[in-house]
């Protein structure tokens, strides 16, 4: 059927087909809605589906295109986004019970940019409560489930974003990343996720978790799709003083350079976190594939991140505690693990918080001088072990030491790059023995997203992991 065919195509294919008049935005939207009808009950990826509004948006965009007006490279493409991006006049829950009926007063900058580019908004997606959780559990709205195996986690906190893109319910989705929350669901669900350089994308009009660690970015099916989407949402924003004024490249136009002549540092940093043999084998295979494409693969030496981890914990706990103080003091309904993690911020001295912020520049210099010495990018795993089940990572239900240890290890290889603010791209690179996806992670220098995309695109051109679809 045509709907099935359209739902399975990539974002770039759909956008280009709409622009050429081969299909309509309405057809693409109906295809996604048909897919949602099948997959939403299995994944619980959506918190709110705006079916009629999306269909009307698609009709309007089709009329605009027929009249010669194309808004941009995403004109007519259906998407949905993590329920932390404000839409003026509409509910925005942040995945919480506290904001179950809260109406946003403004529209976030990134949604304004997607509106201007002609995106159809299907609705808003499930997430860990207030973006505080690496697995995708949510006691208030129901856990999000992995399309490859509904007993397994999606990764979090952008759980619905990863699941909806993987299940081909949407062509792309925005997530956010404070310690890995774009890259973890991208890896666990078998899609592409980019945490760009700190300051590359505005956070204005989005629920904050930690102001100095939060990043906004896209999850898509391919690297090309991701490059197209990032180019739309990136850029300086007067409403977010942390955004960079550096020009935004045409990432998609820079994809085809290949990897010949590049030096890629390869690391399986067991000293940081134990890495399962299956994950290590998948990383080695990815490194070998890039080597066959002409890249030079060399060992990368990772610094000792002990002090960096401690600094990250101090920053996220203090900043979350500051934001949540009014609700915490009012004894608002939090999940136990979210309340516990946030409450800890009230007991950290201000001097420790200031020291943690001060040390960040040192950590960046150390990483660039050590791990990236003489290389263009670093390759390492995103998640260091096979995707676990919802049950064995359910902190609320068990809270035992083994569960807490596993959940803490989730971010062992992603969190450092939030503290460093460096760009990090997750790309599918295989499947574990349970049939769940594995994701590699590429790390670059500040504002080197185009190079990471180029490497990821070359890798996807030589492999087909990203072409596999959950059934």
UniProtKB/TrEMBL annotation:
<protein>
    <recommendedName>
        <fullName>Indoleacetamide hydrolase</fullName>
    </recommendedName>
</protein>
<comment type="function">
    <text>Hydrolyzes indole-3-acetamide (IAM) into indole-3-acetic acid (IAA).</text>
</comment>
<dbReference type="InterPro" id="IPR000120">
    <property type="entry name" value="Amidase"/>
</dbReference>
<feature type="domain" description="Amidase">
    <location>
        <begin position="28"/>
        <end position="452"/>
    </location>
</feature>
<dbReference type="GO" id="GO:0003824">
    <property type="term" value="F:catalytic activity"/>
</dbReference>
<dbReference type="Pfam" id="PF01425">
    <property type="entry name" value="Amidase"/>
</dbReference>
<dbReference type="InterPro" id="IPR023631">
    <property type="entry name" value="Amidase_dom"/>
</dbReference>
<dbReference type="InterPro" id="IPR020556">
    <property type="entry name" value="Amidase_CS"/>
</dbReference>
<dbReference type="InterPro" id="IPR036928">
    <property type="entry name" value="AS_sf"/>
</dbReference>
């Amino acid at each position: 059927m045509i709907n099935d065919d359209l739902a399975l195509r990539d974002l770039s294919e759909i956008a280009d087909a709409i622009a050429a008049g081969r299909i309509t935005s309405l057809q693409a939207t109906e295809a996604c809605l048909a897919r949602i009808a099948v997959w939403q009950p299995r994944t619980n990826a959506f918190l709110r589906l705006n079916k009629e509004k999306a269909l009307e948006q698609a009709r309007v965009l089709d009329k605009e295109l027929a009249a010669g007006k194309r808004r941009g490279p995403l004109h007519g493409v259906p998407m949905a986004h993590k329920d932390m991006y404000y839409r003026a006049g509409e509910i925005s829950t942040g995945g919480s019970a506290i904001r179950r009926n809260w109406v946003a007063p403004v529209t976030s900058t990134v949604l304004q940019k997607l509106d201007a580019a002609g995106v159809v908004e299907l609705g808003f997606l499930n997430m860990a409560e207030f973006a505080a959780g690496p697995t995708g559990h949510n006691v208030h709205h129901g856990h999000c489930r992995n399309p490859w195996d509904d007993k397994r986690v999606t990764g979090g906190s952008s759980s619905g974003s990863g699941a909806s893109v993987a299940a081909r319910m949407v062509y792309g989705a925005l997530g956010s990343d404070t310690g890995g929350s774009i890259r973890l669901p991208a890896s666990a669900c078998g899609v592409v996720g980019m945490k760009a350089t700190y300051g590359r994308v505005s956070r204005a009009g989005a629920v904050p978790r930690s102001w100095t660690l939060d990043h906004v970015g896209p999850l898509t099916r391919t690297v090309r799709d991701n490059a197209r989407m990032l180019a739309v949402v990136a850029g300086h924003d007067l409403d977010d003083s942390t955004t960079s004024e550096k020009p935004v490249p045409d990432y998609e136009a820079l994809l085809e350079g290949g990897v010949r002549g590049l030096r890629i540092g390869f690391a399986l940093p067991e000293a940081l976190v134990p890495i399962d043999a299956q994950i290590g084998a998948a990383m080695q295979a990815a490194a070998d594939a890039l080597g066959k494409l002409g890249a030079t693969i060399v060992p990368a030496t990772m610094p000792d991140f002990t002090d960096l981890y401690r600094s990250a914990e101090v920053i996220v706990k203090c900043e979350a505690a500051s934001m949540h103080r009014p609700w915490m003091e009012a004894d608002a309904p939090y999940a136990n693990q979210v309340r516990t993690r946030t409450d800890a911020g009230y007991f950290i001295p201000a001097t420790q918080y200031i020291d943690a912020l001060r040390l960040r520049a040192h950590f960046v210099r150390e990483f660039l001088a050590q791990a990236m010495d003489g290389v263009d990018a670093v390759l390492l795993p995103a998640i260091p072990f096979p995707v676990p089940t919802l049950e064995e990572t359910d902190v609320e239900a068990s809270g035992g030491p083994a569960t807490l240890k596993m959940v803490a290890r989730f971010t062992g290889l992603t969190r450092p790059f939030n503290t460093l603010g460096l760009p990090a791209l997750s790309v599918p690179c295989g499947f574990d023995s349970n049939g769940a996806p594995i994701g590699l992670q590429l790390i670059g220098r500040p504002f080197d997203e185009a190079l990471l995309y180029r490497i990821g695109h070359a890798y996807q051109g030589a492999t087909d992991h990203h072409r596999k679809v959950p059934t």
